[in-house]
Amino acid sequence: MTNTQWDFLTGDPDKDRRNVGILLDSVEELYGPRSLEDLMRRAVDRAIRVTGAERGMLLLESGGALRTAVVREAGGADLPLTERYSQTVVKKVWSSGEASLTLDTADQHHVSVSDSILALRLLSVMGVPMPIKGGSLGVLYVDSTAKVKEFSQSDFSVFQALGGLVALAVENARLLDEKQEQERLKRELLAAQHVQQRLLPTDLPQPEGYDLAGLGLPCEETSGDYYDVIPFGDERMALVVGDVSGHGLGPAMLMASTRALLHSALRPGANTSEVLSAVNAFLVRDMPDEAFMSLFLGSLDPRTRELQYVSAGHNPPLLLNTDGSLEELTRTGPVLGIVADASYGLSEPRSLTPGQVLMLYTDGIFEAHDAAGKMYGEERLQSSFARHASGGTPAREVIDGVMADLKAFVGDHPFDDDVTCLVVRAC
Predict the structure, then answer these.
(1) I want to staple 344 with a disulfide (CB 3.0 to 4.6 A). Which of 84, 173, 333, 397 is the partner?
(2) What is the value of pTM for the model shown?
(3) How far is 249 from 221, CA to CA, in rounded Å?
(4) Torsions phi, psi for 215 (to 5 deg)
(5) Percent of the chain whose predicted confidence (pLDDT) is above 90
């Protein structure tokens, strides 16, 4: 902002007293608590009043260009945002950052006034920049037919000062609106987080002969990860871990929908392969482009101690055997939400007998990075799990040990993705 923005004092005590009074009144009117839209209307109305103009406009920068934000007439009414104006004056002010006072004889075809008025008098136009630190918000503009009002140098000086006041008031209002919007979004995200946390199981079912524990840590307010243990109603228990690509509110909503589908579909006698195919059909229809979901759905029968599963592109769960060896449970089909007629095979039944420990998890664990950018990796995860799961350690302590190793590796670096795991120990 140049010093001339505020050079409105003339040396004439009466004029200077009037001009200072106008600007003080403007400060009082423009800097009260009000919405951005109300402020911009008041600013244009004030510009019209102090200059005696017929029309006023406020044009704001948007994407490197100017857009008309408010157009008002002297009577205090809104005019269409499509009203024409002196583009020559506005472009000059915007490009140079300097105020302009002109009788716009060269650009009459851009001005929305009748031919009869133009024939009587030329149009008087003023435009001033609205400077802020580091640039300009836009242009404050007034015009009038000379028959009604031809602007004076005194009008011009006060108008320049008013442009600076309006700029600061509009910028403050915009920042306040942004802050309020951020606070609103934060409240909504916290509400969504609360709802999602209530969707996760708090007390996992503990079928006879098994010890289960789970953990879900979102890297933002909400998570695209999901774990669950769902009774079929026929003695079987569904073991579920899923991961929607990305993280945040959108994936969280898709995960909540998937949870509802699973709880509805997992009934006595349900075939997990068919259930997963139905979930895939839903996600193919409703999932955004380039998004997808991986999901492991296991069926554990405590009576027979048999586990069967379907895995839709999910990273292989780890199974620690009684001899200390580790197995990975392979995928049986592609990720969900991509291929409409995808097939999801059912694994062969396998025993889950005393001493064995199964861990289902999402890739947020092994893809975590430390401050130097080094990834935790699958080998560290496998080693950590094998160490903590051996010797009859309870499922909750297995998770605590694995997470302690992970946090020791990443240090103060935040998780890059949601972290979720479910541990099942056969007792």
Answers:
(1) 333
(2) 0.59
(3) 8
(4) -150, 135
(5) 37
Long-range contacts of 155-158 (CB under 8 A, 24+ apart): 155/50, 155/51, 155/52, 155/126, 156/99, 156/101, 156/126, 157/7, 157/8, 157/10, 157/19, 158/8, 158/19, 158/22, 158/23, 158/50, 158/51
* Helix (H) / strand (E) containing 425: strand 419-426
- Domains of the chain and any CATH numbers: 3-177 (3.30.450.40), 189-426 (3.60.40.10)
Which tokens belong to 81? Answer: 């945002």
| Helix/strand/coil for 231 | strand
* Least confident segment among 16-25, 214-223, 240-249, 364-373: 16-25
Over the range 193-223, which residues count as b (16 or more CB within 10 Å of their CB) and which as e? Answer: beebeeebeeebeebeebbbbbbbbbbbbbb
Distance CA 315, CA 362 (A): 7
What is the distance between the alpha carbons of residues 150 and 53, in angstroms, rounded to a whole number? 8
Cα–Cα distance for residue pair 58/10, rounded to 1 Å = 27
Match 């007629």 to its residue by tokens. Answer: 341
Q: How far is CA 147 from CA 54, 123, 144, 236, 420, in A?
A: 11, 9, 8, 89, 75
Instruction: Tell me the one-letter amino acid at 98.
Output: E
Q: What is the DSSP string of 395-418?
A: HHHHHHHHHHHHHHHHTTSPPSS-
- Nearest-angstrom CA–CA distance, 359 and 395: 9
| Burial classification of residue 57, based on how many CB atoms lie within 10 Å of its CB (0-12 exposed, 13-18 middle, 19 or more buried) | buried
pLDDT tens-digit profile of 2-24? 444 445 455 555 555 555 565 55
Q: Amino acid letter at 244?
A: V
